[in-house]
Known about the structure:
mainly alpha, 0% strand, CcmH/CycL/NrfF/Ccl2_sf, 60% helix, iron, 150 residues, transmembrane, Helicase, Ruva Protein, domain 3
Amino acid sequence: MKRLVLILLLFAAPVWAVQPDEMLDDPVLEDRARELSKGLRCLVCRNESIDESNASLARDLRLLVRERLVAGDSDEEAVEYIVDRYGEYVLLNPTATGANWLLWGAGPLMLLLAGGVGFIYLRGRSTAKAPTEAPLSADEQARLDDILQQ
């Protein structure tokens, strides 16, 4: 039983895609590189960071981050270099500036718009007059009476 629990715990541990040959000798630079890699999107896997992805493009991006840090770039400069090269899509958490404000605000705006339309629709239904039925003509009433007597 203990072995089973140990095996399950080993499988539950996160698996990182960073290969030993990618790691920097300086632990401080390696920690910075890992933190930056967690915020950059793998362009192949889409919703995975390059730190978690096994794709070859993610490996290239991890190496590029380390290369920029070794060259003396700050964290912001390294990320800016990659964003300039690959576009803002490479960021897992895009900035809320410029045209991105429209994307950030579209969800709440649509929710408010849908709520307003729903409120107006329900309000209009509650104040609408109930449909009135026209009374039966004499011929229709006579035919109904015949049917009910049978």
